């Protein structure tokens, strides 16, 4: 008889306690389930289980090896975001009006925007505006309002009105969670109105997110997957996970 999630979480903790360090794939084999199932279990563990560099740990009993693995994981995370930013450039053409969301991946796109073609860029994040303001080929529109230090972004009702009156060719959106049935989500409530307005008004909607965001749901839902055109992610997304999304949304490009 198949175990339910609670039973699997108990088994995972027992296995980790015995073996100290195990990779996600090893635990999946021990429990005779898919790696995707284990990743969902980790996401549902309320922070008790953490994944660092492909290894699964009990957050209440992190071994000394976890610190070095964490550093490797952060380095890997950075390279993933750089790759995503580079991939996104292929979607950009001369004369485009672009929307760049806030988020930790978006600066890698901003830094890689072409230098030799005219672009109009709209953003509401201070760190993105700082990068784009140095570029002579970019006409920059910065949306203002109340400043939120945690995301270096602004929010304001006037910003929403402005977005409704601008022809955005391509919107590059960030998401903290990408789920097959719940759609796209983020952690900050003040981002939702801007994201929803952009999704409704932009011609092409492209999400930039690393593979750790898949099968994750954050508190604030802002779009259904059928509302977007493509997701640009890194090469670590498992093929079975990609196929599961495409089975439900065959027109979605991942």
UniProtKB/TrEMBL annotation:
It comes from the Bacteria. Residues 5-57 form the HTH deoR-type domain. PROSITE patterns: HTH_DEOR_1 (PS00894), HTH_DEOR_2 (PS51000). The keyword Transcription regulation applies. Pfam families: DeoRC, HTH_DeoR. SUPFAM superfamilies: NagB/RpiA/CoA transferase-like, Winged helix' DNA-binding domain. One of its GO terms (molecular function) is DNA binding. The keyword DNA-binding applies. Keywords: DNA-binding, Transcription, Transcription regulation. This is DeoR family transcriptional regulator. It comes from Serratia fonticola.
């Amino acid at each position: 008889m198949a175990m339910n999630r609670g039973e699997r979480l108990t088994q995972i903790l027992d296995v980790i306690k015995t073996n100290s360090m195990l990779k996600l794939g090893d635990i999946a084999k021990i429990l005779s389930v898919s790696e995707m199932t284990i990743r969902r279990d980790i996401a549902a563990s309320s922070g008790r289980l953490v994944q660092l560099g492909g290894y699964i740990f009990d957050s209440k009993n992190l071994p000394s090896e976890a610190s070095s693995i964490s550093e490797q994981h952060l380095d890997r995370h950075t390279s993933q975001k750089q790759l995503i930013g580079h991939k996104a450039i292929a979607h950009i053409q001369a004369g485009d009006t672009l929307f760049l969301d806030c988020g930790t991946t978006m600066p890698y796109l901003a830094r890689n925007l072409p230098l030799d073609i005219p672009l109009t860029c709209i953003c509401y994040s201070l760190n993105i505006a700082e990068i784009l303001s140095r570029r002579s080929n970019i006409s920059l529109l910065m949306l203002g309002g109340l400043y939120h230090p945690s995301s270096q972004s602004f929010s304001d009702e006037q910003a929403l009105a402005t977005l409704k009156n601008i022809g955005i060719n391509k919107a590059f959106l960030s998401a903290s969670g990408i789920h097959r049935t719940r759609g796209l989500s983020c952690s900050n409530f003040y981002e939702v109105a801007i994201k929803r307005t952009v999704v409704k008004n932009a011609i092409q909607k492209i999400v930039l997110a690393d593979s750790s965001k898949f099968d994750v749901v954050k508190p604030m839902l802002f779009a259904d997957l059928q509302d977007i055109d493509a997701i640009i992610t890194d090469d670590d997304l498992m093929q079975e996970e990609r196929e599961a999304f495409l089975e439900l949304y065959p027109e979605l490009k991942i």
